[in-house]
Amino acid sequence: MIRKNPSGDLPLIHESAYVDNTAILCGKIIVEENVFIGPYAVIRADEVNEHGEMEPIIIGANSNIQDGVVIHSKAGGLVRIGTNTSIAHRSIVHGPCVVGENVFIGFNSVLFDCVIGNGSVVRHNSVVEHCAVPENFHIPSTTNVHSNQELNKIEQVSPQASDFSESVLKANHELVKGYKKLQNEF
Fold first, then answer.
1. Which among 15, 32, 33, 47 is annotated as catalytic?
2. Domain with 103 in it: what CATH number?
3. Is the peptide bond before 96 cis (omega within 30 degrees of 0)?
4. Percent of the chain clearing pLDDT 70 (strictly above)
5. Domain limits at 122?
6. Least crowded by CB within 10 Å, which of 1, 105, 138, 176?
7. Residue 93 near residue 71, CB atoms below 8 Å
8. Sign (positive or negative) of CA dihedral 39, 176, 80, 164
């Protein structure tokens, strides 16, 4: 479902993107080319700051927002998902938040008030908040990071982690093509 927010903003969705019919996109959202937005995803840009303004939620080209993902922002803060990035099933991205390019966010992870550097991997069931994750970092599954100081204990992305991220991205890019073809059958 595509709908306006109370401020009257309507999502802008590139014609090559695929948004599942069960997904909800509300408000000041920009979905770039070849994006996949899976079933039951909720992307909502509707809160304003103290001046009555809001930044958009931007989903970069060739990225995928998988089943049950929630993306929202507190007080109109910016949320930017970089190009070629995967946000896996049931994750929450709550702004303000910037997720770089070629990033993988694992199943059921939570991001809040953070920056995730290009090429980084946040594995499954992790929480990352109030920090800036440098480029090419690997945050293991079930890790909780609440400050920049805690990042000193985190090892860099292994080649195996990057390979997994790339295979997820490729699979979801093919889904965009397949689902776009199916839209003509309904």
1. 47
2. 2.160.10.10
3. yes
4. 86
5. 2-183
6. 1
7. yes
8. positive
